[in-house]
# Entry
Amino acid sequence: SKQIELVSRPEGMPQKSNFELRTTEVGPIQDGEILVKNRWMSVDPYMRGRMKDSDSYVPPFQIDQPLEGGCIGEVIQSQNADFEEGDMVLGNLGWREYWTSNGGGITKIDPTIAPAQAFLGALGMTGMTAWVGLHKIAQLKKGSTVFVSAASGAVGSIVCQLAKAIECRVIGSAGKQEKIQWLQDKTGIDAVIHYKEVDNLSQELAKHAPDGIDVYFDNVGSDHLEAAIDNMNDFGCCVECGMIATYNATEAPAAPRNLFKVIAKRLRIQGFIVRDHMDAKDEFVSDMAKLIQQDKVVWEESITDGIENAPNAFIGLFEGDNLGKQLVRLS
Ligand code: NDP
# Structure
């Protein structure tokens, strides 16, 4: 079985040389186990944090060990009564072709609801992140003004549409013309900012939100957070989902420089981790399935073929290569 191992810890932007494709033996399975062949794997910005040699909310990846992450695979052998050959399962042993399991911590998915890979995106971790951030953390109210950074990404694109679904005014920012176009054409949001083409993000945001922002859904941090704070209404909420602009930084970020405004504006700035909210998973899935059926939520996938290309797909997240959910399809 082929797998991608971390061979050195990235400094700054990850490089292909930090990863290596290696081969290992998998199986045979024992009584109670299943053998799974991965069909899809997810690459996610949070994995960058696990490449550092420091404990965050998830333990670091180890050198000369395979990476891990969300994956969808097919059960190809089963000695476990709960699984049959052909079942599609969601697990956390991506970055490899095959894995065995006793069935703990993995879930069967129903590929009749949506294509299997959607359970890594809109119906999976990133979709749920959007939903939890807006509904559980911000407690978003109808008619609010919402600003979303990395708005065309896996999380951001769902945030935009969930907020539109409850009649909010939504402003999104993205860093490429095709993303701007997609947001305008497909999500129905009210304004889009090409942040790489504006001189002053804060002033640009003020133009699109003359009455201020009630909720900022932060995927980026740094200058985006600073611009949001400048434009927040009193008692507004910054939902701290991610700060991708800082993940490869080798120095402390220059922005935000305006945190003092949090006091006068009485802002709430709240971080969250989606996996603390797994008790809300059924509510999320039923809400999301309904919105998908009503055509209120659409999504995009950027697909990279071949496990050997997974490091490129991962690095591409930091270069803005992906529109929507970045996936790797295994042969
Ligand atoms: P995306 O699909 O949004 O991909 C990343 C995107 O971020 C890129 O396409 C790029 O878009 C943008 N980006 C990259 N570097 C920068 C930069 N320096 N400045 C501004 N934008 C940048 O990824 P996800 O949807 O998977 O994740 C979005 C965020 O949510 C991340 O910060 C991630 O860590 C966080 N997250 C948090 C979770 C939680 O539980 N708290 C769970 C899942 C994700 P562009 O071209 O527009 O710049």
The first strand starts at residue 2 and ends at 6. The CA atoms of residues 103 and 160 lie 35 Å apart.
